[in-house]
Structure formats: structure tokens, C-alpha cells
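With this grant's support, we have settled on a layout for protein records. A representative record follows, to show the layout.
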Amino acid sequence: MPQRRKQEALNARLDHRSPLVFDTRELGRSPGALKRLSRSIEAPGDLGIEMIGVRKGATVELDLRLESVMEGVLVTGTARAPLTGECVRCLEPLGRELEAEFQEMYSYPDADDRSRTADTGDDAEEEDTLLLEDDLFDLEPVLRDAVVLSLPLQPVCQEDCPGLCPECGVRLADDPDHHHQEAVDIRWAALQGLAETVQDGEKDNTPRASGDDPQEK
């Protein structure tokens, strides 16, 4: 859950060598100061859902805008990465490009809580707020939430994918004319045979015209 991940980020000590940790010291706590940067990173784990996601180690392209404000640093960005997964209808592999946008406030530890809440319009509790640590911030929890929320819940290879045959599992898109003969219920098969026997007996017992008797001369 997003709140839990944010809280985990608060409790962890940041490592400036991590590719998803960024330094804001150049902004100098000067409101209005801006910094733009781009970075290519390897995707961390758990960047997806069951049927589709960004494979661990795949390249993620980040474009960030860091803006210094009174309460901290406002981070706005875009993440681009390749997606891999399976179609939920026919289970065929699929791949596409993801573009996820995000924006998050990283507050100074000594920022006034009341002004922070008033300026952002966020009524979330203090433990849901991400804090700067020695002018560093960790983008991973924000990136993960942005990517997961951008993923399709029911990914398909094409909008009109017909899926799989429920009887034999063949992919129907590869064989549009695929069909099976309608199976006869064995309970009705016996009755059907009986009906045919009775019908044949009735034909044999039908009186024939005198002219039709082969023995009649």
C-alpha cells in the first residue's frame, strides 16, 4: 500500500549511491529555485502486478523537475519503461511502453506541520509525509506507486482478442473458424436410439396397398 511504503521510506537511512536517491543541495532551500535532471536506472523489483509490469533490471528513463518551496522540494517527473506481461484472454506474451507521471512533496524535517498541510491541501497524517534526509530523497516508493497505478488491470494483446477455446485451449485469433461438433449428452443418446427404433418399427407395421404386395399376383 502507498502509505506503508512511504512509512518504510521514512524509517530507512538513505544511501546517496542508490540510483533512486537524489540530492537537492544545489537548490539551497531557496523558494523558486529549479533543477531539471534525467537519469537512466535499472528497475527495482515489484514494479508491477500479476499479469504485467516492468521486469526487474529493465531500463527506466526518468525526467525530473525539482522545485524548492517553503516547506521542502516539490518533485515532478515522468518515468518511461518497457512492460512485459501476458494477455488475460489468450495468455500470449505482450510488450509495450509505459509512461507514468508523478508529483510528490518531500518536506524538510523542520517544516511546520500546519503550514505544510495548509499549502498542499493534504489532510493526510504526518506519518504519510515523505521527508528529506540530509537534503536527499528516495524516489523509489513514489516511482513504484506511479507505475503500478498506470498499469492496465486487464491487459490484452488486442481489444477484440477472442481468447482461448474453452474445450481445447487453442488460440481463437489464430483460427477464426475453429469450432467443435456439439457433443450429445449420453443420457439423451439412449432415448434418441430408442426413438429411432420405435420409428423404424412403425414403418414396418404400416399396412401396404394390395398392389404393392410383391407376393400378390
Summary: The chain has a mean pLDDT of 81. The longest strand covers residues 72-86.
